[in-house]
Amino acid sequence: MYKLFFSRFRLTTKLLAMVLVLTVYGMIPAVIPVTVVNAATGYYVSYSDGNDNNDGLSPSTPWKTLAKASSISYTAGDTLYLKRGDSWNETLSINGDGTPSSPITVTAYGSGLRPCIYGNDADNSKCIVLNSAQGVKISDIEMGYAMYGIYVFADPAVRQTFEGFDFQNCYFHHIRNLNWDVGRPEGQAICFYRNVTDGPSVTVPNFKNITVKNCFSDTCDMFIGHVNIGAAQYRGCNIYENVLVTECTVIHGSFTQIVQAHAKKYNITNCMFAYNVPRKLYPSGTTDIISAWCDGEPTLQNDITDHINRIFLYK
Question: With the C-alpha atoms ordered 187, 189, 195, 200, is the resulting torsion angle positive or negative?
Fold first, then answer.
C-alpha cells in the first residue's frame, strides 16, 4: 500500500514539474483568459401585490408601479415581467438597448388575462414608450384608452438607425385621438416617431428589422403609423427597412390602418382587416393599407379585407 502511494506521489510530482517547465517556456499560458458575461436580469411588477421598496427581482418581491420600472436602464437580455390580471393607468418607459439576438423583453407572468396598461383617454397619452431604445420585444400585453399604444421614439442625435423591434401577441383597443382636428396625428396602436423633420437629407433607414405578429387591434384610429414622417418630402427615402406584419387582425378602425410607405422590404402577409369605417372625424373615408414610395414593389400576400378597393397603391 505504501509503495502504491509513493509511486503515485512520484508520478504526480513529475507531471507538475513538466507543466511548470512548459509554462516557463511559453508552451502553456500561465493565465487562461476567461470572458465574464453579466447575467441577464428579470424584473417583476405587480400592481396588486407589489411595493416599490421591494427589489423587484422575483415574483415574491415585485415592484408596484410602472414609474418604478421606468426608472432604470435595461441592458441586453433583461426581461420586465408584468403580472397577469393586473392593470396600470400610467406609462411604461423603456430605456436602454438590447440586441436582435438578446432583446430587452416586456412580457407577462402568472396566470389569467394579459396585464393591461391604460391611458385614461388623455390627450397625447401613451401606454409604452421606447425612449430611443432598440432591440426590444413586447409580447402578451393589453394596451388601451390612450392616443398611442407602443410609441417608438427615435432621436437621431442618439443614433441614425434604430433596429430590432418585435411586437407579438398584443391586444390594442380604443387607441384614439379624441381631440383630433386637421393637422394633428391620429391615434396609433403602434407609432414610429422621428424627432426631426429633415426631408430628402435622409440617407439611412431610421427603423430597421421590425416584426409585428399575431396582434389584435380593435377600435383604434390606426394600427401602424408614424409621426414626423411626411409624405412628399420623404419621397425616395427609405425610413423603414425589413418590416414584417403578419397574422394580425384589425377591426373597427376609423382611418388608414397601415401606412406602408418610405420603405424597403415592407411585407404585410396573412392579415385580416374588417369593419374599418370612418367615424365623424374622418368623413372622407378610410383605407386599410396605403402603400406608397417604397423601394421596389411592396409585398401584400394573403391579406383579407371586407370591402373592394381597401388597398390603395400609389407612387
Answer: negative
pLDDT less than 50: residues of the chain: 1-37, 230-232, 308-309, 311-315
Split into its structural domains, the chain has a count of: 2
The H-or-E segment that residue 5 falls in is helix 2-24
pLDDT for position 209: 95
CA–CA separation, 50 vs 63, rounded Å?
Answer: 5
Q: Do residues 51 and 24 both lie within one domain?
A: no
Q: What is the pTM of this model?
A: 0.81
> What local confidence, expressed as pLDDT, does residue 240 receive?
82
Both 109 and 190 in one domain: the answer is yes
Cell of 34: 476567461
Beta carbons of 186 and 177 less than 8 angstroms apart: yes
Could you tell me the three cell numbers for 112?
389569467
Q: Do 9 and 100 belong together in one domain?
A: no
What end-to-end distance do the CA atoms of the chain give, in Å? 92
C-alpha cell at 300: 401584400
113 and 194 together in one domain: yes
pLDDT at position 266 is 83
Give me 84's grid cell: 397577469
Q: How far is CA 61 from CA 44, 89, 174, 181, in A?
A: 8, 21, 32, 45
Measured CA distances, 125 to 65, 156, 215, 263 (Å):
17, 23, 21, 27
Residues 229 and 166 in one domain: yes
Residue 278 has a pLDDT of: 66
* Residues 200 and 123 placed together within one structural domain of the fold: yes
Report which of 177, 120, 128 is spatially closest to residue 149, judged by C-alpha positions: 128
25 and 56 belong to one structural domain: no
Contact 135, 76 (CB under 8 A): yes
139 and 212 assigned to the same domain? yes
- List the grid coordinates of 245: 406584419
Cα separation of 93 and 87, whole Å? 16
Furthest-apart CA atoms within the chain: distance in Å:
101
| Structural domain of 250 | 39-314
